[in-house]
Amino acid sequence: MPEKIRSHKAKKVIERMGQKLNRQMVGSLVACVHCGMCTESCHYVLANPDDPTFAPAYKADQIRKIFKRHFDWTGRIFPRWVKAQDIYTEEELEMLKDIVFGKCTNCRRCSINCPMGVDFATLNRMARGLLTSVGIMPEGVAAVSKDQWEIGNQMGVLKEDYLETLEWLSDELENEMGDPAARIPIDRMDANVVYAINPREIKYDPRTISDAARIFYMAGENWTMASKEWDMTNFGLFSGDDELGAAMVRRLYEKVMELRGKKLVMSECGHGYRAVRCEGPNWAGMDLPFEMESSVVTMLRYIREGRIQVDRNKNDLPVTFHDSCNNARSCGFFEEPRELLSLVVADFREMYPNRAENYCCSGGGGAMSMSEYTSLRLKAAKVKADQLKATGAKIVATTCHNCVDALTDLIRHYKLGMQVTQLANLVSNALVIEKKSSYLPKF
Amino acid sequence: MNFVENELQLLALSFMGLVYILRLRWFLRFKAGAERQRPTASSDTSRVRGILYSWANIASPWAMESTRLKPFFYAQFVIFHLGVTAGIGLSFVIPYAPGLLQNISVVRIFQGIMICAAVVGGYRLYRRLSHPAVRLISTSDDIFSLSLLIVWLGFAVWVAPNRPDLGEGPLLIYFILTTFFLIYVPFSKISHYLYYPFTRYYFGKSMGHRGVYPIKRVPQRKPTRI
């Protein structure tokens, strides 16, 4: 039998796996007992009950078999006994790509349901990173990553377009408030709040920026947005590329420091919050001199401190809340949105299960940018559709732009007739606006 | 018989200990990833609480949906592991404290636990071979380890009264199987207990720091459609 030739890319994947492994990953690779307890925690499995290849342990094994073959004792000596397997060709890498990008949203639900504490989502992200490092990734992920590297934001928004959008949003706010000071400040030094957003807001959803601006204005906040390095999103989290992850957060952190901002406030973006608030300091290796928080926390504080007044009856349709996986399961951020909702909506209905046990919207892990897996994603979204339907709510609120898109898509697909909104929209709608000359203090 | 019960077991045990030390040395050579960010946790969670909660997971069937919704599976886990512990205990009791087995109640307790464990083992083997996802992920090692444990538990039940006067055969087989296990375990999935404290420590530490652990669950009425 002729000797198998290993492709250059396969060689690199194996070599880089050895460099990426840390103790947590190795623990997750060696500790799985194949009990199958994770199986039914996965929304892909629930939507595809007849296909065992969606089981989280099976998907993890596609990474684990390479680890066993090259790094684990038993696997190196008796590979067949423990299903250790080598990887040689680019076709095999492509198959692995379809599993780690197409059959898993890195939602981490299986991780919290594993009796052994195996963190499959971390393994999956590592595998994505290895493939990305040799150029094997979905087209959409490649395109967005390129935009982040080269233009500095994931939607390739040019500086001129960004500033022009903020300009007309400022004009609208000024007209609405009848106050020439009611504008979106750009690059203001020493602001209490530097506000970072998801480029989707500039491109497709500017009302969320104006809602946030209205709230900051009404609260009399000394705030600013940056003229560049304003993108809080981070495709490094999705692609597993730690270098991109570090580069993106470093740009943002350095901009806040340059502006001498006291606090970085992030708009409602699940993965962005996780990347900037939770993973970023690790990737960038930086200890930061400023605080970071979600705009949800900021809005909640404004209400608690009486800086803005709200009337919950202005949002009178029944509202349910979808927990972003990155917020709830990876950052423990789930009570504040509920507290805020209880103040700004008249009829709140909890979803089951919720908080850290909630199901993924199906658009996590960058799935919305991977059109080749859309049919798989929408099929798996059945679980979320059933959850939404059972609440009887007319509106689903969420703190994540990816979730907004995925939920909108699945609501259309499953004909649920619901609207999707974010908390800034609900808070803004509930604002009690009294006419006075200006809400802003002199800066 | 005396050699098989004593010296051979001690030799095998020393071998297992040595391999475990080497395994842990290998494992600890990998650098642990650090969490640099400030805690996202609310005031009622912390790294320490996360670690303790994570370690306590083994005795908290309500903590995970996967065990909460499947109490039968959790009960199996408890019975099976108690049976294995009893079987291991027996391998020490027979040579070093045989007097304990003079009491027929003690023998019956050992036998009862191990019979239940063997039955559960049988069911687990059936599940491993019949459940499509579990069959797909199972390795030869998984199936072999479980099968051999069932056989070993069977012999343990047989020899629990410790009556070599009725024939040394079963005792010999039990101790030879025990020796085999002691040598095989460090290379098989049965050694998962070696990693459990570490995997749960790191996962709990991270989840505690980030405010996810202890899991906050507000009991809800489960809608009928889910």
Description:
The complex is a heterodimer of chains A (443) and B (226). By secondary structure, chain A is of the alpha/beta class. Chain A has 2 domains: 8-137, Fumarate Reductase Iron-sulfur Protein, Chain B, domain 2; 152-443, no CATH class. Helices cover 50% and strands 7% of the residues of chain A. In chain A, the strands form 2 sheets. Chain A has a 4-stranded parallel β-sheet. In chain A, strands 6-5-7-8 form a 4-stranded parallel β-sheet, sandwiched between helices. In chain A, strand 7, helix 20 (401-413) and strand 8 (419-422) form a beta-alpha-beta unit. In chain A, helix 1 packs across helix 7 (120-133). Chain B is mainly α. Chain B has a domain at 2-13 and 70-193: Up-down Bundle (Fumarate Reductase Cytochrome B subunit). Chain B has 10 helices and no strands. Chain B has helices at 2-5, 7-29, 47-55, 65-68, 71-96, 104-130, 132-137, 140-159, 169-184, 192-209. The radius of gyration of chain B is 21 Å and the shape is globular. The interface between A and B is large, with 73 and 67 residues.
Secondary structure elements and pairings:
The complex is a heterodimer of chains A (443) and B (226).
Chain A lengths: L7 H13 L2 H8 L12 H5 L8 H16 L1 H5 L12 H11 L19 H14 L5 H12 L8 H19 L15 E4 L2 H5 L2 H13 L4 E3 L9 H5 L2 H17 L4 E4 L3 H15 L6 E4 H10 L14 E4 L2 H7 L3 H10 L3 E2 L24 H7 L1 H10 L3 E4 L2 H13 L5 E4 H8 L13
Parallel strand pairs in A: 1-2, 1-3, 3-4, 5-6, 5-7, 7-8
Helix pairs in contact in A: 1-7, 4-7, 6-7, 9-11, 11-21, 13-14, 14-16, 15-17, 17-21
Chain B lengths: L1 H4 L1 H23 L17 H9 L9 H4 L2 H26 L7 H27 L1 H6 L2 H20 L9 H16 L7 H18 L17
Helix pairs in contact in B: 2-9, 3-10, 5-6, 5-8, 6-8, 8-9
